[in-house]
Write a sequence for this structure.
């Protein structure tokens, strides 16, 4: 099924709204917890390790266009632990909250793979940078 | 006829990098006379000789002034083999160049 492009844009803009005014990108190693009852679970519930916490822009991006939400700049931060990133979350604050309540989106990550594709593993104390121009596309617009 | 329709999942594309940071500590399994010991609230754990006579760090510093295994062993009250392994580890950890 597909939708009008304007409808697809509205869906993406809801993600930006849900991210709130102090959004963070949290990057983890380990197994990503699955959703339960339509809600995310705490990342620690699956034994994941939080490698880095990066502040995002407010809003996370300008209004979606042509079914694409392009994220604005994400602040470079130092890694807290050394590890291979396996998934990331967009949260409304710098913790994913009890039961993952602050998490509004989750994607895959990896070294040379994943929706967020890293050039190398994250090192404790090393700078973690997300390249400007990360996109979320709603294929329903096509 | 199906009574529901699914929207396609969102696609996310991004790239990221990590530069610098703490070099991982080399494993000590090739140095059976060494062990991790004493967790310090500021400086963290260190690798020691397993007879607890000296840390690798202390032996590495002393080795710069006294490049003799037996003399260093006598100084720290341990064996020359303990000192040899400590220096070998110090080289692997890049305490010594």
């Amino acid at each position: 099924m597909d939708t009008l492009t304007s409808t697809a844009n509205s869906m993406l803009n809801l993600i930006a709204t849900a991210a709130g005014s102090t959004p963070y990108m949290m990057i983890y190693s380990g197994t990503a917890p699955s959703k339960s009852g339509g809600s995310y679970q705490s990342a620690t519930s699956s034994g994941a390790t939080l490698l880095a916490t990066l502040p995002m822009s407010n809003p996370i991006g300008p209004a979606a266009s042509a079914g694409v939400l392009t994220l604005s700049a994400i602040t470079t931060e130092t890694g807290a632990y050394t590890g291979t990133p396996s998934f990331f979350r967009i949260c409304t604050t710098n913790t994913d909250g009890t039961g993952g309540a602050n998490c509004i989106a989750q994607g895959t990550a990896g070294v040379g793979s994943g929706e967020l594709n890293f050039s190398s593993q994250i090192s404790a104390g090393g700078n973690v940078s997300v390249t400007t121009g990360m996109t979320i596309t709603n294929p329903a617009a096509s | 006829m199906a009574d529901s329709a699914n929207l396609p999942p969102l696609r996310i594309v991004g790239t990221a990098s990590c530069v610098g940071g703490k070099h991982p500590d080399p494993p000590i399994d090739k140095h059976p006379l060494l062990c991790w010991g004493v967790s310090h609230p500021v400086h963290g754990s260190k690798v020691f000789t397993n007879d607890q006579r000296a840390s690798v760090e202390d032996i590495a510093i002393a080795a710069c002034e006294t490049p003799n295994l037996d003399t260093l062993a006598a100084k720290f009250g341990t064996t020359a083999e303990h000192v040899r392994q400590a220096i070998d580890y110090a080289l692997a950890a890049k305490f010594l160049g």
Q: What stands out?
A: The longest strand of chain B covers residues 11-19. The beta strands of chain B are 11-19, 34-40, 44-49.
